[in-house]
């Protein structure tokens, strides 16, 4: 019997978002006759929503590193590094594949010291814009340049990310590979039974329009722009509601802002919602107002469900939104174009039918789970063969 290739995948934490979905699917769906997969994860922060239920759904049992978390904590990070190193020594993987920033640093360093033959890192986003001041950002760029030297391959999830890494001279073009995200659409596509459940839960009239935003409540998501849009539209048009779906450290601050603007009759925060099928069943428009993104999962899911999406032009948006043909995007912090497009939709909703259909077609073509698995297995096979004959 041929020996299986051991893959140890490391992610900073299994909080709500694309990276958790991505890593769980890879662990669950790689060819089990060829690969033996392990998943290592840190702990989520107290204000974050836990997505370990998604790992449970696929019968994935992560190995938890108690000291690894998103925040920079030198003492805990040191202990986390040694925890990861010990796990590597125990598992003896052929491939280490890290995901997200903290896991990418600690995991790649531990893998290098443990002499793991193949070291891969996936950038799901980056912290080079909109997160920190200049000094800290430059430090992180310097660290990524060093870490790229010990990385066999670097994966990005969109073309814009690849160009950013090249512009910053973090890695050579030969080392970087673009692999878009992948999804099992059955996990979020609504059925007829889901229709109306969200409206009932939050006492929204049947005839009202719903324009929402989905994601963690963090400054990088720029919910202030969403509130600006909601304030203008709600004061001009009557029966429209603006749910903010998600949770995070800015929840209380956003609640106060909604109250101060006196728009609480139309704008409300739902908190974290585990099952998004009723949300997508009832939503009319889904907005993204972020300063920075990798590839925004909520927008992909909304388009797959045949929803109109309007987004800031961040991350991989241009890779799958053909502007004004299957969705809309504008420059960051541009309030007027958002408002103008929403008003146009309100007055000419029938004209947007083909956009919805094209959105569904595009997303299902690009972001299937099987395509993701095939891409990753091809990268693994190539690197294993190269090492075998080097």
Overall description:
The chain is α/β, with parallel strands linked by helices. It has 2 domains: 199 residues, Rossmann fold (3-Layer(aba) Sandwich); 182 residues, 3-Layer(aba) Sandwich (Rossmann fold). It is 43% helix and 17% strand. It is built from 15 helices and 13 strands. The strands form 2 sheets. It has a 7-stranded parallel β-sheet, with helices on both faces. Helix 9 links the parallel strand 9 and strand 10. The longest helix is centred in the C-terminal third of the chain and has 20 residues. The protein is globular.
Sum up the structure in keywords.
single chain; 390 residues; alpha/beta; Rossmann fold; seven-stranded parallel sheet; six-stranded parallel sheet; 15 helices; 13 strands; 17% strand
Summarize the structure.
With 390 residues, this protein is of the alpha/beta class. It has helices at 18-29, 52-57, 74-91, 101-113, 134-149, 159-167, 197-201, 223-236, 251-260, 277-282, 297-304, 317-320, 335-347, 353-366, 369-388; strands spanning 5-13, 35-42, 63-64, 95-99, 118-123, 153-156, 176-178, 209-214, 240-245, 267-271, 285-288, 308-312, 328-330.
**Shape label:** globular
Strand content: 15-25%
- For the secondary structure, the number of strands is 13
Distance between the termini: 24 Å
Low-confidence stretches: none
- Total number of helical segments? 15
CATH class annotation of the largest domain: Alpha Beta
- The third-level CATH topology of the largest domain is Rossmann fold
Secondary-structure class: alpha/beta
Can you summarize the main beta sheet?
Answer: 7 strands, parallel
CATH superfamily of the largest domain: Glycogen Phosphorylase B
The chain-level mean pLDDT equals: 94
Q: Please, how many domains?
A: 2
Helix and strand pattern: EHEHEHEHEHEHEHEHEHEHEHEHEHHH
């Amino acid at each position: 019997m041929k020996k299986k290739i051991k893959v140890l995948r490391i992610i900073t934490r299994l909080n709500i978002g694309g990276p958790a979905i991505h890593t769980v699917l890879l662990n669950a769906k790689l060819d089990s006759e060829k690969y033996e997969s392990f998943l290592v994860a840190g702990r989520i922060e107290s204000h974050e929503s836990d997505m370990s239920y998604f790992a449970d759904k696929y019968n994935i049992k992560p190995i938890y590193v108690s000291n690894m978390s998103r925040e920079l904590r030198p003492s805990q990070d040191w202990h986390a590094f040694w925890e990861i190193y010990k796990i590597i020594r125990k598992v003896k993987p052929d491939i280490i594949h890290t995901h997200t920033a903290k896991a990418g640093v600690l995991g790649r360093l531990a893998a290098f010291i443990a002499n793991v033959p193949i070291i891969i890192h996936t950038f799901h986003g980056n912290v080079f814009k909109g997160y920190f001041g200049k000094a800290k950002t430059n430090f992180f760029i310097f660290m990524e340049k060093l870490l790229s030297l010990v990385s066999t391959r670097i994966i990005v999830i969109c073309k814009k990310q690849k160009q950013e890494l090249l512009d910053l001279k973090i890695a050579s073009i030969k080392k970087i590979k673009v692999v878009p995200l992948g999804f099992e659409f059955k996990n979020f596509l609504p059925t007829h039974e889901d229709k109306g459940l969200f409206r009932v839960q939050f006492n929204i009239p049947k005839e009202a329009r719903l324009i929402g935003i989905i994601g963690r409540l963090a400054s990088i998501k720029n919910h202030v722009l969403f509130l600006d849009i909601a304030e203008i539209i709600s004061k001009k048009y009557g029966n429209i509601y603006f749910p903010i779906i998600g949770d995070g450290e800015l929840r209380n601050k956003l609640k106060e802002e909604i109250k101060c603007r006196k728009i609480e009759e139309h704008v409300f925060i739902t908190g974290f919602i585990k099952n998004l099928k009723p949300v997508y069943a009832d939503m009319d428009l889904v907005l993204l107002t972020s300063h920075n993104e990798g590839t925004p999962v909520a927008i992909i899911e909304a388009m797959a469900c045949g929803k109109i999406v309007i987004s800031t032009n961040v991350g991989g948006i241009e890779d799958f939104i053909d502007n004004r043909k299957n969705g809309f995007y504008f420059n960051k912090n541009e309030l007027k174009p958002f408002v103008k497009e929403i008003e146009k939709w309100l007055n000419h909703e029938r004209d947007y039918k083909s956009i919805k259909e094209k959105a569904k077609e595009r997303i299902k073509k690009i972001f299937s789970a099987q395509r993701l698995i095939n891409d990753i297995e091809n990268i693994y096979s190539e690197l294993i063969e190269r090492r075998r004959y080097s």
